[in-house]
Write a structure and sequence with these properties.
By secondary structure, this protein is an alpha+beta fold. The chain contains 13 helices and ten strands. α1 packs across α8, α7 packs across α8 and α10 runs antiparallel to α13.
C-alpha cells in the first residue's frame, strides 16, 4: 500500500526484533448477504438454484474422527446419515459437483460417487467437505458447503480479481459452495518441507511471502496464519516455482487491529519472517512490495467496473463494528498520512480508499504511461 514508517527499518526487520504474538480477541459473527450483494452475484453468474442447502447436511446421524496418515486428529469428522437421507443427499451433491465444475449436465452423475462427507467444527464457517470420485478412473475432487457469509463472499471476489488466482464458487440463498484450493497447508510446509528446501527455493519462498503479505494488507484480508494459506509448488522445466494462496476468507474487512491484515505479525509465520530477514536486505523487500502493489494496481484497472460495483455493495453493507472501523482507519491514517481514511464511514469505504491509494500512487509513478 506504500505505507511509510517513521524510521528506516523495514516491517520485516521490525518484527524480527519484536516477536510478540498477535491475537484476535473475539470470534467474528456471520453477516447476511444483503440485496445489493445478491444483485452483484447474479450479475456476475455467482448464483444458481442448488438442490441442497447447508442445513440439509446437518441431519447426520453420527460421526467418526478423521485422522491423517500420522494418526493425528485433523479436526474433521466423517459423517454418516440414515439410508434414506444418504441416497437423497448423495444425488444432490453430485448435481452440485456437475454445476460447479461443468455445465450441470446430469449425464455424468452415474459415473460419480460421494466418497466422504466431512464436517469441521473448528473455525467460523463450520464447513462440510465433500469428496467426489469418478468411478471410471478413480480421479477425485473436493468442494465445500458452507453457510453464506457476506465477509467470506467479499473476500472470495476480491481474491478472484486482485490475486493471481481465479476462484470458483456459487451462492444460493444462505448456502455457499466453494471449489477446493489445492496446495500444501502452510503450517505443514513450514514444519516438514521448508527445512529441506534449497537456498534458491527458500529465496523464492521468501519473495513470495513478502508479496503475499503486501497483497493481504492492501485488500484487508486478515488472519492469514500459516494454516489459513497453502504453498503451491509448480514444476517448471528446470526448477520448482512456489506460490502462496489464501484459503480462508472469513476475516475480510472485519478486525480493527491493522496488523491482523499483515501475515508477518502472527507467531505461526515467524519462520517465514526469519527467512525473509535472513535472505533480503531492505532494498529487496521494498522492491518486491512495489512489484506487488503495481500488479494489484493493474488488476484494479482491468476489473475497474466490477471492482467499483463490488465496493459500492460493501459501502452499503455492515461488515464490522464501529469500534473496529474507528481503530482501523485511525491506524492506517497514521501509516499513510492520507486524511481520506479518517473520513471513511465504514469498512467498505476504508477498503475503497486503500485500493484508491495504491492505484493513485501507481499512476503517479507511471504518469508517462497514464497521461
Amino acid at each position: 500500500m506504500g505505507f511509510k514508517l517513521n524510521n528506516e527499518l523495514s516491517l520485516f526487520e521490525i518484527l524480527f526484533f519484536m516477536k510478540d504474538d498477535l491475537k484476535i480477541s473475539l470470534k467474528k459473527p456471520s453477516y447476511p448477504v444483503n440485496t445489493g450483494l445478491k444483485a452483484y452475484l447474479q450479475k456476475f453468474n455467482r448464483t444458481i438454484r442448488l438442490p441442497i442447502f447447508y442445513d440439509d447436511l446437518l441431519r447426520f446421524q453420527g460421526s467418526v474422527v478423521v485422522y491423517d496418515k500420522n494418526d493425528k486428529d485433523t479436526l474433521w469428522v466423517r459423517t454418516y446419515y440414515s439410508e434414506f437421507d444418504r441416497q437423497e443427499i448423495d444425488l444432490c451433491l453430485k448435481k452440485v459437483y456437475t454445476t460447479l465444475h461443468s455445465d450441470g449436465n446430469e449425464k455424468t452423475i452415474p459415473f460419480l460417487n460421494v466418497d466422504a462427507i466431512d464436517y469441521c467444527t473448528f473455525g467460523n464457517s463450520k464447513p462440510f467437505r465433500i469428496k467426489i470420485r469418478n468411478i471410471l478412473n478413480d480421479n477425485y475432487a473436493y468442494f465445500y458447503v458452507k453457510k453464506a457469509d457476506a465477509s467470506r463472499i467479499y473476500g472470495l471476489e476480491l481474491e478472484h480479481m486482485l490475486s493471481p488466482h481465479n476462484l470458483n464458487f456459487l451462492v444460493f440463498e444462505d448456502t455457499l459452495i466453494e471449489e477446493h484450493i489445492t496446495g500444501i497447508p502452510g503450517d505443514v510446509f513450514i514444519e516438514t518441507m521448508l527445512p529441506n528446501c534449497t537456498p534458491s527455493e527458500t529465496s523464492q519462498i521468501a519473495k513470495e511471502f513478502v508479496k503475499f503479505n503486501e497483497r493481504c494488507m492492501i485488500r484487508l484480508l486478515g488472519d492469514m496464519r500459516s494454516y489459513n494459506y497453502v504453498i503451491v509448488p509448480t514444476h517448471d522445466f528446470d526448477h520448482v516455482v512456489y506460490t502462496i494462496r489464501a484459503i480462508d476468507f472469513d476475516q475480510q474487512c472485519y478486525e480493527g487491529k491493522f496488523n491482523v491484515y499483515r501475515p508477518q505479525f502472527f507467531k505461526e509465520n515467524f519462520k517465514m519472517v526469519d527467512l525473509v530477514s535472513g535472505k533480503f536486505k531492505k532494498e529487496s523487500i521494498n522492491q518486491y512490495k512495489l512489484e506487488e502493489r503495481s500488479i494489484v494496481a493493474k488488476r484494479l484497472m482491468s476489473f475497474k467496473n466490477r471492482i467499483e460495483r463490488l465496493i459500492r455493495c460493501m459501502m452499503s453493507d455492515t461488515l464490522s463494528t464501529p469500534e473496529h472501523e474507528t481503530l482501523l482507519k485511525t491506524k492506517i491514517h497514521e501509516y499513510t498520512g492520507d486524511v481520506r481514511f479518517l473520513n471513511s464511514k465504514n469498512m467498505g469505504e476504508i477498503l475503497k480508499n486503500s485500493l484508491s491509494f495504491v492505484k493513485r500512487n501507481y499512476q503517479t509513478e507511471n504518469s508517462g504511461i497514464f497521461f
